[in-house]
Amino acid sequence: MFRGTLLGVASLFIFSTVDAAPLKVDVEDAADHQVAAQGHYSGGLSHSWEWRFGSKRSAKNITGIVASGLLAAHRLSGLTEHQASALEAAKSLIVAYDRGWKARRPHTQDIEFLAAAGYVVDAGRWFGVLRRRWRPAAYVDHVIAARKRARAGSLAGWDIASAMRAALAVGQVPYAQGLLSRLVAMREAWDVPKDAMQAQVLSAASILWALGDLRPWCRLNPKEHRFADAMLRRVLAAQGPQGGFLTRDGDAYSTQTSAYAILALRRWGHKREALRARHWLRRTAVSDKLFFVGGRMWASHYSLAGRPSQDFLSEVQSEVLMALASR
């Protein structure tokens, strides 16, 4: 989600060539890297990850979303070490919430992850905290206000899409519908042309993923259909000539947005565009020669010429794993 200057680390990170190896090998290699990176870092939980590789610092809201990539990798690879690493993160989350985190706003990515990991009862309990605290419209308004205070209103769609998927994961379809209705009604408040995050395409892709999961459970009304069509047009228009998806201003490729676009477009029948993006991800993987030696990883952004920019974030590695392992 963040962009910066180009890294002068050609000697430390070696670009992989266009892979002749099967996709499964790519996913296994990247997942092995995530397993090696798991630990206990300042500011986070045990069995979690650094948010930015090399920082030695974690954050309490990344455990679920990073571990989700390992679950996705396990579904493709079948390797028990990937599943075991994810389940250690799940146990750490459950202990943290049971010791008092339930008094806080549950992170919806944690709820998504726990449900996928088989801890559906815990996921349901945590979602109950959110549901008792906020009705759907109030939750959407809360998220938009918080993001706008941080000059990141365009990221609210990404947040609310996660809440929709979390609701669906624990069987709360009416709550997911309520979130969507308010998200559409409040579009002018969060879908802003310019802000610090420039997350309009990322939010659109995450929303489409959530809508793709919602559609089997309910019918979208005409206004929601028009909204979905607008989000789909935005995502498709952001695909660059190399296959990855561009930032809002078109000056770089966003790895995170490309991953979410794959997860979204496959649900909306745009498999060719998703496949182009997947090829782009495989081409842009680098070999870690600095943090945890060996294993594929991805920069958060790439220049139009293909050079990595800014940081290597554990969250982004996970989102790539989810995209590559998706079927």
How would you explain this protein's 3D organization?
The protein has helices spanning 23-37, 63-77, 80-98, 108-116, 120-133, 136-149, 156-169, 173-185, 187-190, 200-214, 222-237, 255-265, 271-284, 314-325, and strands spanning 13-15, 245-246, 253-254, 286-288, 296-297, 301-302, 308-309. With 327 residues, it is mainly alpha-helical. The protein has 14 helices and 7 strands. 57% of the residues lie in helices and 5% in strands. The strands form 2 sheets. Strands 2-3-6-7 form a 4-stranded antiparallel sheet. It has a 3-stranded antiparallel sheet with strand order 1-4-5.
**Given the helix and strand composition, which structural class is it?**
mainly alpha
User: Percent helix among the residues?
Assistant: 55-70%
Low-confidence stretches: 1-20
Order of helices and strands: EHHHHHHHHHHHEEHHEEEEH
